[in-house]
Every structure is written in C-alpha cells, then in structure tokens.
Amino acid sequence: MSIISKDISKAVALLNQEELVAIPTETVYGLAGNIYSKKAITSIFETKQRPRFNPLIVHIPSLDYLEKIVDYIPEKAKLLANAFWPGPITLVLKKKNTIPDIITAGKDTVAVRVPNHPTTLELLNQLSFPLAAPSANPFNRISPTKAVHVEDYFKEKIKMVLDGGPCKSGIESTIIGFENDEPIIYRLGSTPIEDLENIVGKIAIKNKKDIAPDAPGMLERHYAPKTKTILTDNLQKAIKDYKGRRIGLLLYDDLLNDEIIDFKIVLSKEKNLQEAASKLYDALHQLDKEDLDIIIAERLPDFGLGKSINDRLSRATKN
Ligand code: TXA
Ligand code: MG
Fold first, then answer.
1. Nearest ligand by distance to the CA of 215
2. Which ligand sits nearest to residue 27's alpha carbon?
3. Which of 20, 52, 158, 206 lies deepest, with the highest CB count within 10 Å?
4. What is the position in ligand 1's atom list of the atom closest to the CA of 133?
5. In a shared domain, residues 277 and 158
C-alpha cells in the first residue's frame, strides 16, 4: 500500500506521536519530526543514515515565530526574512538554549526557515512545535522533488509522505549565516544571490575551505546519482570520450540529434533557469534508473539560479 497521502490531520496525528512524516516544501521534500522529541530527531538521523555532526534546519510557520527559536536577529537578517519568507532562504542565527543540541549538532547557532508551501504551512499552524526537516533522501543521494521519490527511498521506514505535488523551486534553500552581523552565504540555493544583494547589498560566499566548521554538511559529496556522472562545458568532446558506452545526457536547452545517445533530458527548451531548477533532481532520478554507463551533464550559465544548479551538479559528479 502506498504511504503517499494528502491527509493533513493524519500527518498532525503522526507527528504528535513522535513519528516522522515526509513533508512537501517549495524546494525539496523534507523528512520531518518534532524538534523537541528526542525519539523523532534520533529517528531522522537513523532513517537518513546522516552523521550526527550535520545539524538540521528548523521549519517554523511564520516570521513572528522566529523569536521563540533564536536569541538575536541582526538587522540584515530581519530585512532578508521580511523580503523572502515564506520562501527558500534559511538563516543561521544564535540559538535559544531551549533548542536541543541534537538539532544543532552542539553548535550555538540554529538554521531556520519559513517554507513556502500551503500544505506545510497549514500543517505547521496545526502543530504546537516546529519541525526539523532535512531533505528526505538517504545521506549523499539525490534530493526528492516528488512524493514518489521519497516513497521509493523510505517506504519501509516511514509511515507517511504528505503529498503536496512536485516542488516548484526544485533545489534546496539558500543558507545564510552572519559574521559580525553581516550576511555570508553558506550554501547556494533556490534564492539567487543577486536577489539577496538587491535587499542587503554585496554578500560574500563562504570559501569552500572554511565552510566545514560553520556548515558541516557542505563538504560532503552530495545530490549524487549512483551512475557515474560528469559535468562539462564541451558536450561534443565528452560524448566522443565515452563513445560505445551507454550515455545519458542532461542538457540545458539543446536537443542534439546524436545516435549514440541512449537517453537525454532537456531541462528548459526556453532557457529558463527557474524551469531548469525545478526539473533538475527529477531528471537525475530518471537518468539514474536507465542503467547507463555515464551521465554527461552540461554546465549551465553561471549566474542566478544557474550558479546554484552548477553547484549541485558539481557535487553530484564528485566521486
Ligand atoms: O530547502 C531546504 O533547505 C530543505 C527543505 C526540506 O527545507 N532542507 C535541507 O536540509 O536542505 P538539509 O539537512 O539537507 O541541509 C541542511 C544544511 C546542511 O548542510 C547543514 O550542515 C546546514 O544546513 N546547517 C544546519 N544547521 C546549521 C547551522 N547551525 N550552522 C550551519 N549550517 C547548518
Ligand atoms: Mg540534503
């Protein structure tokens, strides 16, 4: 029997019993549990096989709720929250000491966001606690953007996926920390850096070498298909290099008519980065099912959401 359901009251009941429910958001599906339940949070780490040093994002119903989670909100954090919540930015702020250490992996900061999905906002409003929710995939695998992706991963392990349709943004939230009250990007994501800069001015991106202590999850190989995957600027050359093998292509806009290609997916015929982002993970899920020798992914233009998509593709190709 399918674990996918649209029944919000059933999700409320399960979460109140300290069970996990996969929830829809505008970015990706999350594997959610009560932040104050040790049982639920332990179960999130175990179900995902996620290392305990990698902290979780807390999902709250509204900006007003933020003061129950954090001790201090820098001015620019307020501006960003006002501009983008509900929506795909996550703020890393000084935590209140009521937030359990297991959520933050012992850090004195907590990652928090208001997701922009009507079903999950309704759910959060019916609960008396916020939800911790990492992306609902096993550690290091492709994030889920459809209920069925989660069901494929976890049907033996969880009781319910709350169905909210396909995720509109399709890649994870942009994570922003603060150093001396100035924002700094920990993870590129669904909110383009240019949009953030329109609100608060120039923002630095945390250097890859320095990120580990601040955002421990960010160094890992991530978002990865099982099939060997490469990212290239030169499709013709890559196709030639793998001649004779079963090739799958992940293209931005171009439909190549090449006979040696066994399977191809075009992310956006109209060269629309938003469309490409929303289709990215589903495309990787599909390609991974085709029993290919190699997935060749075309690098996207390096601005706006293209930057975030390239970041995910480059992580998917690290072995
Ligand atoms: O769009 C999203 O953000 C999705 C949906 C479900 O909300 N969630 C998500 O969670 O992507 P997850 O767990 O897959 O990624 C959370 C990232 C991790 O890389 C983690 O290291 C970082 O957030 N993080 C969490 N708490 C942190 C903290 N206190 N300081 C720095 N980084 C933190
Ligand atoms: Mg994740």
1. 1
2. 1
3. 20
4. 6
5. no
